[in-house]
């Protein structure tokens, strides 16, 4: 079975003079192998005529073409094929009543498409022009999905969906109006939403809007619940509150599916894991479901043993960072005691601290206690003052990304040509974050994950002494988060500079950080920035404050949240080890490449 997919947003026939057609050897004898579609104006490849030589793939200057040879037996599992791009989704996740099914995989591999099909928003065409619901039910005859789709298409199965992107919900409607009929929900108090009930949706922060939408979704009267990246913009405490609320739905005998890239959250709330693997923009294949621990570990290790499938060449194993002592190196800069106030409604107290070259400082804390205010204050002070006789340069990636650049990604990076001429930067940052693949896209048309990758790469392309990155994991999948973490670490180490990274993904903070700054306080009222400390001590202090314990997985070294009041939870709390370092693997050279 052959797939020939063209990413229409990347394809630019007017800029390459139809290069794919000119280099195709089959086109000389069969001139309809590659054509320019009259509707889209983009290249379209006839998979029946294509011989899979890959010449057009290698010659395309915009990396728009994917030609893949797949096992013939996969042809019987085609669920949906997009006629415009050629993307194919093979099989579907199987919801299980009374259980939470977690879905994990690369962005662009079909997770959201699978959710649209299971929620009834998209009727799959089974690889043809057929969009009949009866055909879908017949296709899954003898499978659990037959009963599911029979209920869905007959109207006997009600669905509630928490969408991935929430910007379209930012209207002048108040929270109280939006939650009409659900104001008695105990989740309003659990998520601390009482104070924003009179606020308009377009006035809320990302975290507040996420919590409001989660409450409305959970309180909907439905039989199946779908959550697409519910942890985005939530702090650690709210992520685990969300996890408990989602698990309660499963205990009521509901179907619950969650797409999530935060490994800690997914591990905490899911009963089973399905991995969606493939080539982003070309195809996605839905695996069997696994137990939550094994499923996440299979994804990290890049191998599915039940079908002998290698997902990637390298393994992802977490380092022993948290076990390291607070080792000082060459001082980058220090800051004294400071305080920041906003209209007498919020006050941030900053304790003195020191940052060291070649190190990454993670910053953890609840939403609204001043993490972003702290790095903005550092940015402001460094812009105004000289440190030891010279002014330090700062590169800042903000939390909220508002693309205002008129042009393509390629034109944006033309502003940083010196970085693209640096082989180390290209190898450590530009290529791992797959920026070339986005080169012909307009910056203003990038998806959330694409924009985040571009923003992080552009931030690291700037020659600076201090790198400030606010929530670089937002909208990224697991592999992209770890690729970003590696890019930050390598940039800091190679250039002997310092980076401050704010994030709520504990797995990412654990992976990227050398030291940790904990920010605590009362959200929206006052905050306190503690001095940098060792990662282990910082994580222990932070987790003690939110009353959650973590252990490490013995196979991959990843952090895992203990279930509340479990034996391990009680044992670790009794000895004050909220972040337990036992059974940490030493990564091999291959695993950490």
UniProtKB/TrEMBL annotation:
Limits of the 4Fe-4S ferredoxin-type domain: 41-70
Entry keyword set: ATP-binding, Nucleotide-binding
PROSITE patterns the UniProt entry points to: 4FE4S_FER_1 (PS00198), 4FE4S_FER_2 (PS51379), ABC_TRANSPORTER_1 (PS00211), ABC_TRANSPORTER_2 (PS50893)
Alphabetical list of InterPro entries matching this protein: 4Fe4S_Fe-S-bd (IPR017896), 4Fe4S_Fe_S_CS (IPR017900), AAA+_ATPase (IPR003593), ABC_transporter-like_ATP-bd (IPR003439), ABC_transporter-like_CS (IPR017871), P-loop_NTPase (IPR027417), RLI1 (IPR013283), RNaseL-inhib-like_metal-bd_dom (IPR007209)
One Pfam match: ABC_tran
GO MF annotation terms: ATP binding; ATP hydrolysis activity; oxidoreductase activity
Domain ABC transporter: residue ranges: 68-302, 327-546
Family matches, as NCBIfam families: PRK13409.1
Protein name as it appears in the record: Ribosome biogenesis/translation initiation ATPase RLI
């Amino acid at each position: 079975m052959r797939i020939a997919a063209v990413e229409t947003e990347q394809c630019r026939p007017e800029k390459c003079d139809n290069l794919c057609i000119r280099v195709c050897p089959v086109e000389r004898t069969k001139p309809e192998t590659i054509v320019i579609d009259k509707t889209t104006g983009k290249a379209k490849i006839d998979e029946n005529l294509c011989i899979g030589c890959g010449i057009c793939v290698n010659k395309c200057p915009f990396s728009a073409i994917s030609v893949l040879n797949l096992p013939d037996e996969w042809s019987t599992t085609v669920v949906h094929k997009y006629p415009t791009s050629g993307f194919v989704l093979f099989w579907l996740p199987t919801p299980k009543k009374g259980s939470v099914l977690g879905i994990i995989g690369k962005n662009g591999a079909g997770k959201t498409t699978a959710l649209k099909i299971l929620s009834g928003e998209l009727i799959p065409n089974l690889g043809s022009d057929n969009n009949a619901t009866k055909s879908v039910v017949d296709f899954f005859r003898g499978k659990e999905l037959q009963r599911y789709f029979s209920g869905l298409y007959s109207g006997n199965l009600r669905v509630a969906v928490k969408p991935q992107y929430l910007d379209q919900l930012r209207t002048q409607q108040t929270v109280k109006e939006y939650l009409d009929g659900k104001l008695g929900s105990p989740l309003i108090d659990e998520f601390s939403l009482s104070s924003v009930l009179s606020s308009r949706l377009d006035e809320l922060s990302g975290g507040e809007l996420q919590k409001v939408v989660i409450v409305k979704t959970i309180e909907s009267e439905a039989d199946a619940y779908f959550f697409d990246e519910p942890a985005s913009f939530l702090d650690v405490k709210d992520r685990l509150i969300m996890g408990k609320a989602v698990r309660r739905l499963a205990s009521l005998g509901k179907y619950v599916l969650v797409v999530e890239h935060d490994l800690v959250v997914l591990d905490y709330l899911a009963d089973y894991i399905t991995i969606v693997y493939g080539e982003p923009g070309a195809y996605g294949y839905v695996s069997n479901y696994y137990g939550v621990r094994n499923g996440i570990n299979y994804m990290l290790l890049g191998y599915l043993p039940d079908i002998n499938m290698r997902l990637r060449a390298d393994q992802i194993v977490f380092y022993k960072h948290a076990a390291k002592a607070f080792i000082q190196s060459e001082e980058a800069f220090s800051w004294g005691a400071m305080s920041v106030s906003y209209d007498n409604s919020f006050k941030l107290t900053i304790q003195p601290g020191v940052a060291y070259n070649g190190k990454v400082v993670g910053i953890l804390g609840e939403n609204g206690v001043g993490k972003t205010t702290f790095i903005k204050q550092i940015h402001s002070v460094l812009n105004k003052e000289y440190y030891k006789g010279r002014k330090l340069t700062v590169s800042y990636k903000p939390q909220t990304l508002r693309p205002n650049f008129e042009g393509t990604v390629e034109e944006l990076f033309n502003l940083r040509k010196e970085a693209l001429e640096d082989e180390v930067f290209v190898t450590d940052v530009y290529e791992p974050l797959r920026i070339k693949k986005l080169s012909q896209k307009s910056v203003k048309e990038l998806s959330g994950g694409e924009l985040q990758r571009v923003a992080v790469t552009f931030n690291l392309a700037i020659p600076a002494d201090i790198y400030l990155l606010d929530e670089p994991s937002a909208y990224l999948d697991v592999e992209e988060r770890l690729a970003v973490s590696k890019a930050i670490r390598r940039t800091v180490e190679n250039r002997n500079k310092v980076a401050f990274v704010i994030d709520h993904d504990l797995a990412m903070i654990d992976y990227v950080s050398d030291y940790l700054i904990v920010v605590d306080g009362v959200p929206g009222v006052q905050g306190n920035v503690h001095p940098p400390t060792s990662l282990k001590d910082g994580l222990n202090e932070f987790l003690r404050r939110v009353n959650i314990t973590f252990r490490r997985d013995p196979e991959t070294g990843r952090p895992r949240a203990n279930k509340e009041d479990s034996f391990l939870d009680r044992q670790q709390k009794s000895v004050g080890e909220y972040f337990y370092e036992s059974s940490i693997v030493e990564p091999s050279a291959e695993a950490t490449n």
